[in-house]
Each structure stands twice: as C-alpha cells, then as structure tokens.
Amino acid sequence: MNRENKEKFNIEQVKVGRTREGTTMEVLAILLLAVTWIIGLTKHQSASATGEGLLAKCIVFSIIVVVLLVASYFPKFFSNSHELSNMRQVLLTVRMIRVLAIEFALTVLFMVISGGLISPQYDCSWVFNIIIVVILLTAILFTILIHRAK
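RE: above sequence
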C-alpha cells in the first residue's frame, strides 16, 4: 500500500454493513444462546443448587456474546493495540469478533449441558482448558492475520 492510501484511510469513517456471512454468524450465535437458555431454564426449574449457577453463567455469557456482536459493527474500538490501516484489517477484525462470539456461545452451551449430565466422579476440567486454548488460538491467529494484512 502506498503512502497516499495510508493517509486517506480513516478508521473513524468506516461503516460495517450487513453481509451474508455476518448475518449467518450472528444468527448462529443467537440460536446457540437461545438453546442454552432453554436448557438452562429447564435445568433451573428441575434442579436445586446447580440451577442458580447455570443461570448466572447464562446471563454472563449472554452479555459477553451480545456485546461482541454489537461491537463487531464498531471496529474503531478495537484498533487500540494495533492501528487498522486498511479495509482488509477491518474486515478481519470484524470476523474475529464474530467468531469469538460464536465460541463464547458454544462455551456456555457446553457448560449448561455438562452441568447436570456429567457425573461428579467425571472431571471435565480438561475440556474447559481445551475451550480456553481454542479461544486464545483464535485471537492469536486473527491477530497475526490482521498484522500481515498491511
């Protein structure tokens, strides 16, 4: 990219529009949250002590997912760690935010499903460790792609 194009690009003027990919990712994240809430509310009504923890997880992760989905339309807030200097970087940033929203929705779905189905003798902490690693790898991979898109 030549110097003139770098000077012309202004992250403040970027408007993220609706795309088929974006809409699909948003609908998928919302459907995952809806399934999570249905399962969580069902378990809350039938369970005693574990139901409160499930609802708290649903609330926290739902807020995280919705904030990420809304934030994907405002990429200028994610340009603090690295300066977004072209549209390719903006599109990769938006895609990263939406993928992370889906991963967080899948995480809470797994938490709610595993909350009552897995017996206390079975330790599933290794699965949560894998989920954390996948989320971190997603962020690292997209950060590298964004950096290379200069």
